[in-house]
Amino acid sequence: ELAKHFDHVEAFDFSENFIAAAKRLQSGEEMKFSVPIEGDITEEVSVVHEPGVDSAVMKRVNFFRGDACALSDYADSKEFGTFDGVIMANLLCRLPDPVACLNAMPKIVNEGGHFTIMRKNIINI
Hints:
Radius of gyration: 17 Å
Oligomer: single chain
Number of strands: 6
Strand order of the largest sheet: 1-4
Helix content: 10-25%
Order of helices and strands: EHEEHEHEHHE
Shape: globular
Structural class: alpha/beta
C-alpha cells in the first residue's frame, strides 16, 4: 500500500519466513492458508493484493530480513538512506530493546517526514 504513494519502500522483518512469503506474493505467486475457526474447524483463505497494487507498484518494495534494534547501524551505512515516512506496525512491544529502535528515528526520518507507530489491540477473553 505504501508503494502506491512512495517511489521506494524498504520493508523488513526479523522473520525470514515472513520475508519469503512477501517475496512470493511480490512475484505473483498465489498463496492460500488455513485459518483456525473453532477446534479442528478451519477455513481456507487466499492472499490478494489491494486494488491498485499491480506489478509496477510491487516492484517499488524491497523486502529484506532486518533487525529493528539495529536501525542505527543501518542508518550509519550509505546503502540504507533516509526516508520521508516510517511505519512501525505491532513492533515495539516485541523488541528486546525498543529504545534502540526509537533512538534511530532522527537518523532515518527526513526533516518534515512522518513517523507512525501502530499497535493492534488484542483482547483475550
